[in-house]
Q: What sequence folds into this?
DNA sequence: CGACTCACG
DNA sequence: ACGTACGTGAGTCGT
């Protein structure tokens, strides 16, 4: 497994990215595609700069190769928990809205509810990890089977977690059921901003195909609304930076924008960038943006 | 060209 | 009974 991990990094990134350097500009230039992903996300090809490694120390060394020119730094700005915030908005669940209104650690708060901790600071690391898997699973339209596999526990135990979650966050349960029903009646789902995904298989007599469409119906409003929001932010950031030479929008990675900025303008750009991203949508919960600065892309996180 | 694997959000 | 968490792109291998 160690060999495979390193072989992947070398064949996909270390060997290939240098071949993609443009002789005229000395940079790698990706292509972004606006009409590939069904949810409204962008995709990135030749090279794909939306899957540069970050999860291992060796992988991060590849990310460190993405650097700002002399006199400049990179700024990375990430939306924090944007899909769960959108789930709170769409479901209107009181507990979830309250958690984000107070900017709580959402996985810790979920763990406290599901596992009945006396207070959030009594939550163990293992309970938080399980709650995080539950939260991801909700966004993906999980089954107890899938959660069980992810956590390495028995299906019955996973089903108990799911039941407890829906007991504590009944608005989420109601939203999931209503979304499936609406998708079946209408044949499509919509994001907060009206982007549609048509799901003809939602009425299929083939159970496998129908269930796949049902998971898409659950996931697409959240993933797609997040895509809408960052696209709105990109338009505002582009308008703001138009004609300004000291800052350039360089990359988008689904919930993250990367800018190249002159060193002496960093403080002002940080504040205004965050403001544009936070203001890109007004939901029933606040949007939160985490910003970082560095000489390279890894440091900027 | 498809299957498999694995990189990211 | 059915299969089993969403969305992508790229390298490798076998055909």
A:
């Amino acid at each position: 497994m160690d060999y495979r991990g390193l072989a992947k990094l070398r064949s996909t990134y270390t060997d290939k990215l240098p071949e993609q350097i443009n002789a005229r500009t000395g940079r790698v230039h990706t292509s972004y595609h606006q009409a590939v992903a069904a949810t409204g996300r962008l995709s990135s090809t030749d090279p794909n700069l939306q899957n540069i490694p970050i999860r291992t120390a060796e992988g991060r060394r590849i990310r460190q190769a993405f650097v700002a020119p002399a006199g400049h730094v990179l700024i990375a700005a990430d939306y924090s928990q944007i899909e769960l915030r959108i789930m709170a908005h769409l479901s209107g669940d009181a507990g979830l809205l309250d958690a984000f209104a107070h900017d709580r650690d959402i996985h810790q708060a979920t763990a406290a509810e599901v596992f009945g901790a006396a207070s959030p600071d009594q939550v163990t690391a293992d309970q938080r990890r399980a709650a995080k898997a539950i939260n991801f699973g909700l966004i993906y339209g999980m089954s107890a089977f899938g959660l069980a596999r992810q956590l390495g526990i028995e299906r019955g135990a996973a089903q108990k977690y799911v039941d407890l979650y829906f007991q504590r966050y009944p608005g989420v349960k109601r939203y999931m059921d209503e979304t499936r029903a609406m998708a079946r009646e209408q044949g499509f789902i919509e994001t907060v901003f009206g982007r549609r995904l048509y799901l003809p298989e939602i009425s299929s007599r083939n159970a496998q195909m129908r269930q796949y469409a049902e998971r898409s119906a659950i996931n697409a409003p959240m993933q797609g609304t997040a895509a809408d929001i960052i696209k709105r932010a990109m338009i505002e950031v582009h308008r703001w930076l138009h004609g300004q030479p000291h800052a350039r929008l360089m990359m988008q990675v689904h919930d993250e924008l990367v800018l190249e900025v002159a060193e002496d303008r960093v403080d002002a750009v940080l504040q205004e960038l965050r403001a544009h991203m936070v203001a890109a949508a007004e939901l029933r919960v606040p949007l939160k943006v985490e910003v970082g600065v560095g000489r390279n892309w890894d440091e900027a996180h």
In short: Chain A has a mean pLDDT of 96. The longest helix of chain A spans residues 207-241.
